Amino acid sequence: MNIKVDLKKNIDDSYDVVIGELQPQHFKKACIVTNPTVSALHLEYLKSKITADELCIATIPDGEEYKNMETIEQILGVCFENRLDRSSYLIAFGGGVVGDMTGFAASIYERGCNFIQVPTTLLSCVDASVGGKTGVNNKYGKNLVGAFYQPKGVFVDPRFFDTLPSREFAAGVAEIVKMAVTFDAEFFSFLENADLRDKENLLKAVAKSVEIKASVVAQDEKEHGVRAVLNYGHTFAHVIESETNYTGYLHGEAVAIGMVMANTLAMKLGKISEKDAARVKNLLEKYNLPTAYGVKDAEAFYDKFFLDKKTKEGSIKFIIPESIGGFEIIKDTPKNIVMEALNEFLA
Amino acid sequence: MNIKVDLKKNIDDSYDVVIGELQPQHFKKACIVTNPTVSALHLEYLKSKITADELCIATIPDGEEYKNMETIEQILGVCFENRLDRSSYLIAFGGGVVGDMTGFAASIYERGCNFIQVPTTLLSCVDASVGGKTGVNNKYGKNLVGAFYQPKGVFVDPRFFDTLPSREFAAGVAEIVKMAVTFDAEFFSFLENADLRDKENLLKAVAKSVEIKASVVAQDEKEHGVRAVLNYGHTFAHVIESETNYTGYLHGEAVAIGMVMANTLAMKLGKISEKDAARVKNLLEKYNLPTAYGVKDAEAFYDKFFLDKKTKEGSIKFIIPESIGGFEIIKDTPKNIVMEALNEFLA
User: Fold this and answer.
1) Is B12 on the interface with A (CB under 8 A)?
2) What is the pLDDT of residues A179-207, one digit of tens each?
């Protein structure tokens, strides 16, 4: 199954997300970027499918705490040592962290070489690998340095789902839930009734999520409008991840908490109903996702919103569900209402 | 005078190069990126023209040897500390080094914020500030890490030419000569007959160079074809700059030598005539530009070509004048002919 990411303003950079068993591909020069965990499980399989006249491998440390410029320099170093050029391919083989960094490295290697995504986590398959957001974290926050840079293709091979630890699996489900809450009530009902641990259901949910993501990115590649809706839950999640040094929660887990917090704010603003907010929370809990967080200092938490990229000219942009399947982007939420919502999560 | 850089594949990113006294502009949040030399001479003037509700200044060390990722981190740090966002403006105020780094910093700051160029050197006015090539050097070579990222505008104010040291002035002339040799025989004749130390002649030459550059970039923003011609002399120059640790020559000086070396190769390939090659050399020497270089080890020099970005799939791409005002891009030059040319420059 192929889903096209059809960039309206940038048709030359349009590409396909291919769902199904990875088909053989051959390159002249390529560098596989991966981490030791994925490499141990799947590198032999990948190399049976992806071949090159000259192939090198950059193995980077596993974990969000290594998503920084030092690791980018490591990837670039491997590429320079192996004399890759602008027509070469970097192959992102791993989860969101590997994908974001490989894409960023490709975007700045000799002012831009090619890259493809072969995501191995559910989260990366349904969200991170599609749409060309690349980057790294720094001491000021998450994904604050990076580029919009599109892959030449995304290849979602369901075989990798079999080896996912259950926490990683659930983290991916959180982003699937995000797509459903904001864009598709019918899809949300499907998720309530289906068990995604069943592979057929999972593939349906992956395809639907990729379709939603691709259609949003096609309309608004650089996030001037509707693409911001994909950040539902993320404004809160980024602060949580920063407060826990990117080690306490998987990204999808932080997003699960963030959606519950965003819904609390939504209820205070008279948007999503208590009943629908409970449906979202129940669905997340069905996959053992965390839905609570102990805010230590609500003022400090609030202040951290302002380092988010989405915070333009000093006003925070919250993505708020009006109902299941409908969103609103709210730019001027009074601080006291946000504080009320945060206070409900005080430790 | 306004010259449009009209990007065919990317019309949203088209912009103007404005030649003439800088007109007042006001921004919400902006960061001026400059160096101590330019700052001492001209910052007060710039601040009388460019104002912002919130204005900060990143002063970076002066010189090509600081054109690296550490300096990029310094610029980004100032932007984060001052909480610039995606709608903010970085203002590149200096020569090519400041412009290339400011543009690169803007391209990766929160996945891309705005920037404008206010070039203060002749070289930057006629070449570097136009066209969106940004980046830094590293231990593998020059401009090997960077992005194609267009400014929102380029503002060429001739007042800065008055304070240029004569070496800096001549370095700019080298790039003007480059445009003429490759694209415009009539312009070359003008340069032979006019003294660019005369301001009226200089402004004519600047405008003509910007026109040529803008038209080339408009056709081929990302250097898949004709834009490579602007690298005439640069393939050699980059090796010279690398061998002299970016401190022996100004970029334009290395390009002057590089054009003479490229012409020597061109003659060996039966392209440019001896007479026309002498005209180019004479014109460069009229501005006291260097035209000789002592190659220590021709094999080592040759080997360094392969780290150049323009070296695709192991074949070096030489830009060779056929005659004054005409070029050829030659991809498969036999090594022995290149070595013959290099041997003429042995120390």
Assistant:
1) yes
2) 999 999 999 999 999 999 999 999 999 99
